[in-house]
Every structure is written in structure tokens, then in C-alpha cells.
Amino acid sequence: MGLEISLFRSGPLGGDQQVGAKICEGEMDFVIFFWDPLEPQPHDVDVKALQRIAVVYNIPIACNRSTADFLISSPLMAEEYQRQLVDFDAKLRPPAVAGTSPSGTYGRCLLQKKWPRGRPPRAAPRPGLF
How far apart are the C-alpha atoms of 32 and 39, rounded to whole Å? Predict the structure, then answer.
């Protein structure tokens, strides 16, 4: 198949973080990461973090042989594939404050963590909360 394969350290020795770093740097096209779900994992939190980062960066990840077989035998392996990425930076920006002035003054101040006249605008209480 002509695939370039990279081997990393064992999970408890930091292999999960190595793979996650390569994903973040855009150097990983897909991941095959086998682990035994019936054995306690001393680095279970790291395995979950690796799965999370693969989802965030829209990287296919196989954690069992069947999924790995599907990935490797996919017709998409023979062609260039453009992943769709979500702009999480935009999703993490604070929303505009209700009652924002037309000039957007409160929105700008929210990003600067300063409010005009020293305090945030009052939000109307939502019915049914209290």
C-alpha cells in the first residue's frame, strides 16, 4: 500500500501525548491505536484525551482491528482527502451580551474584561429560573 507508518512510545511512557501532538501539528492523517478494554489502564485519562483530540481535529481513529481494516481498505486511501475542520476558536469566543449597543461597546468590553462605567450591563432575569 505504500503507507508511511510511525511508531511511538508505549502509552504509559507518553506515547498517547506524542500521537496527540502530531495530530495538533497536522502531521497525522489517521490513527490506529489498539488497547485492551478489559484491562485496567494506568493511563486511561491519556487514552481519553487522545480520542478527544482526534475528534476535535476530525482525524479517523481506529481502536480495534475491524475499524482499522475499514480505514485501510477505504477507497479514500487512494486519493487526496480534505478534512472538514470546525473553527473552535470562533466557538470559544464569548457571545455578544444581550442588550449590546449598536456600536458593540459591551461586546468589545467583554473581550477586554472591562465594562463601561465599571460594571457589566444588567441582564433581565429569565422566567422560570427562580
Answer: 18
Residues 6+ apart with CB under 8 A from 22: 6, 28
Residue of 16, 44, 69, 87 marked active site = 16
- CA distances 125 to 91, 110, 122, Å, are 25, 19, 9
Q: For all residues of the chain together, what is the average pLDDT? A: 76
* Residue-range domains of the chain with CATH: 11-86 (3.40.50.1380), 89-118 (no CATH)
Residue 14 DSSP code: T
CA separation for the pair 13, 51 (Å, rounded): 17
Rounded average pLDDT over 1-23:
85
Catalytic residue at 87? Answer: no
Q: Is the pTM of this model over 0.85?
A: no
